[in-house]
């Protein structure tokens, strides 16, 4: 499979206001939550639905919290992020890796070594999302779920230009387009899981299954 940039995205789509190394921006730990409790509960519920107990999970772009359901035990949860102090403080992680995915999009994991993966409120910071998602498709077992969640806020200077140009619905479509371009995902679902009535931050998700999938597999939006 080629790792060439995908021609369907204009080159400026992945530019950011702050092009300095991400290591500088993430140097100091931020022991904060990036979405409110209602939106976090929606993320946790998705994980409850998609990630089986006793499975091996990868929390990509992780911090000091993983939002996994407290009542569920997993065999192993590996985190990958930019700040070591945050990752060390994360009580759900069995192991962690500090890696800048915008410098090195190749994941340091064996092929087909995880049963599921999550990217929470972070996909908008990837300058090579197609390459990273292709790598995620490699390290997940066939049919394993990937749950990508996001709300309507971000660190503006570090989000890619394409993210700023789109609204919530556009973000769902953009993430689905990244997955299609990666070429090793199927059963892509676009979900609006915003808490109702709308008192909390909105919460959107794109879920997909690893592997090429059965021929004719459709996508769903709800
Ligand atoms: C808004 S925080 C979200 C953290 C966590 N997923 C959560 O739900 O609270 C963005 C996260 O993306 C990670 N991140 C940002 N840029 C990254 C990069 N270039 N490579 C790897 N991780 C990155 C940071 O370490 C940070 O933890």
Structure explained in plain terms:
This protein has 222 residues and is α/β, with parallel strands linked by helices. It has a single domain (11-214), classed as Rossmann fold. It is built from six helices and eight strands; from the N terminus they run ααββαββαβααβββ. The chain has helices at residues 22-25, 37-50, 84-89, 129-139, 161-164, 168-182, and strands at 56-60, 76-81, 95-98, 116-120, 145-150, 185-192, 204-210, 220-221. The chain has an eight-stranded mixed beta sheet, with helices on both faces. α4 (129-139) crosses α6 (168-182). The protein is globular. It starts with 21 loop residues before the first helix and ends with a strand. Mean pLDDT is 93; it is low at 1-5. The chain binds S-adenosylmethionine (SAM). S-adenosylmethionine is lined by residues 22, 26, 34, 61-63, 65, 67, 81-83, 99-102, 120-122, 125.
Provide the fold topology.
Elements: H1 22-25, H2 37-50, E1 56-60, E2 76-81, H3 84-89, E3 95-98, E4 116-120, H4 129-139, E5 145-150, H5 161-164, H6 168-182, E6 185-192, E7 204-210, E8 220-221
The protein binds S-adenosylmethionine.
Summary tags:
222 residues; alpha/beta; Rossmann fold; eight-stranded mixed β-sheet; 6 helices; globular; binds S-adenosylmethionine
Termini gap? 31 Å
The parts where pLDDT drops under 50 for at least 5 residues are: 1-5
Oligomer: single chain
Share of residues in helices: 10-25%
What binds here, in terms of ligands, is: S-adenosylmethionine
Strand-and-helix sequence, N→C?
A: HHEEHEEHEHHEEE
The first-level CATH class name: Alpha Beta
